[in-house]
Amino acid sequence: MTSEIQSSQESDDYTEIDLKKWLHKLQEFQMKLETPVNVDILLDNHSQTSIDLIRINPQLHSFPRLYSSLEHSLPVSDNLNLTYTQERFDKFYEPVILSEKGLAAKNISDDYSRICGTNQYSSDVHRIHFRIGERTNSCPFLGIISSLEGLSLRKITLPSANGWSDLDYVVLNDKSLSTSISNKTIQSGDEVTLILDCDNREILLDHHRTNRLVRQSIDIQECPFPWKILVALSPRNGSIHVLC
Question: What is the pTM of this model?
Answer without folding.
Answer: 0.67
